[in-house]
Amino acid sequence: MNYDHHYHAGNSADCIKHLALSLTLHILIRKDTPLAYIDTHAGAGRYVLGKEGEHLQGISRLWADRRNLPQAGTWLKVVGHENADGLLRHYPGSPALAAALLRPGDRMVLCERQPEVAACLRKTLGKRPHTSILAEDGYHALFGQIPPPEKRGLVLIDPPFERHDEWKRLADSLIRAYARWPQGVYLIWYPVKIRGTITRLWQALRERLPAFVYESLQMPEEGREQLFGSGLILVNPPWGLREALAAALTELGPRLASPQSGGSWSLRCHGWTAQHKD
């Protein structure tokens, strides 16, 4: 695997993804009943930010102005706790972010197939109660966890998109998961890069499950080989999430826009109800 979690940590994609994760969990924990959180591609949990890395185009652009970003406050407060002296040197990945927001009795299942990364994850969060860390393929492990005994929960699917069949695996796994646990909340991140691939993913999902999609673009969508932004697929978003996420993405969009685009950015929204084919 070529994906380097430490180099990519805190980039613009992480900012969009973790913003959405924090808003989703913040709403879900308002109910008193227990919650299950399942992360299929968890990573190491926490990261040290160096002088170089993609965080320079992500969280580092937001850090100095963080107090003027109220819509992103839940997420940035957790990042702030990781950097109590005010200097941005550490970044919480999705497991650490979820652990900071979930209640002590809420259960976490964190999947990371790379042994060395899973070992780091155990050092970071292995002592948290009600937490399972599985050194397994997240797609396979997911089906041993749903439906959870808590009946309520969130599944985060955030693959590295390096395998040639990743998009198909994502679509097939999400469709199967929804069929097994249609009450679950699902949050999926994908790169906005090749529109034809995204269109095929949407079409596959459109036939089997209802969803809402946000795409936050950091530059105009041109060419075929450049990453333009981040896509988020929401299945069963809790009440109020769509509006909160739109407001927060609008707040972050101008600050994460690529300088080479002249500050151009856009937010696109799509949604559909399932059109089942038998």
TrEMBL record:
<feature type="binding site">
    <location>
        <position position="94"/>
    </location>
    <ligand>
        <name>S-adenosyl-L-methionine</name>
    </ligand>
</feature>
<feature type="binding site">
    <location>
        <position position="158"/>
    </location>
    <ligand>
        <name>S-adenosyl-L-methionine</name>
    </ligand>
</feature>
<dbReference type="InterPro" id="IPR007473">
    <property type="entry name" value="RlmJ"/>
</dbReference>
<dbReference type="GO" id="GO:0036307">
    <property type="term" value="F:23S rRNA (adenine(2030)-N(6))-methyltransferase activity"/>
</dbReference>
<feature type="binding site">
    <location>
        <position position="112"/>
    </location>
    <ligand>
        <name>S-adenosyl-L-methionine</name>
    </ligand>
</feature>
<dbReference type="InterPro" id="IPR029063">
    <property type="entry name" value="SAM-dependent_MTases_sf"/>
</dbReference>
<dbReference type="GO" id="GO:0005829">
    <property type="term" value="C:cytosol"/>
</dbReference>
<comment type="subunit">
    <text>Monomer.</text>
</comment>
<feature type="binding site">
    <location>
        <position position="18"/>
    </location>
    <ligand>
        <name>S-adenosyl-L-methionine</name>
    </ligand>
</feature>
<dbReference type="Pfam" id="PF04378">
    <property type="entry name" value="RsmJ"/>
</dbReference>
<feature type="active site" description="Proton acceptor">
    <location>
        <position position="158"/>
    </location>
</feature>
<keyword id="KW-0698">rRNA processing</keyword>
<dbReference type="GO" id="GO:0003723">
    <property type="term" value="F:RNA binding"/>
</dbReference>
<feature type="site" description="Interaction with substrate rRNA">
    <location>
        <position position="3"/>
    </location>
</feature>
<keyword id="KW-0949">S-adenosyl-L-methionine</keyword>
<feature type="binding site">
    <location>
        <begin position="137"/>
        <end position="138"/>
    </location>
    <ligand>
        <name>S-adenosyl-L-methionine</name>
    </ligand>
</feature>
<dbReference type="GO" id="GO:0070475">
    <property type="term" value="P:rRNA base methylation"/>
</dbReference>
<keyword id="KW-0808">Transferase</keyword>
<keyword id="KW-0694">RNA-binding</keyword>
<comment type="similarity">
    <text>Belongs to the RlmJ family.</text>
</comment>
<keyword id="KW-0489">Methyltransferase</keyword>
<feature type="binding site">
    <location>
        <position position="41"/>
    </location>
    <ligand>
        <name>S-adenosyl-L-methionine</name>
    </ligand>
</feature>
<protein>
    <recommendedName>
        <fullName>Ribosomal RNA large subunit methyltransferase J</fullName>
        <ecNumber>2.1.1.266</ecNumber>
    </recommendedName>
</protein>
<comment type="function">
    <text>Specifically methylates the adenine in position 2030 of 23S rRNA.</text>
</comment>
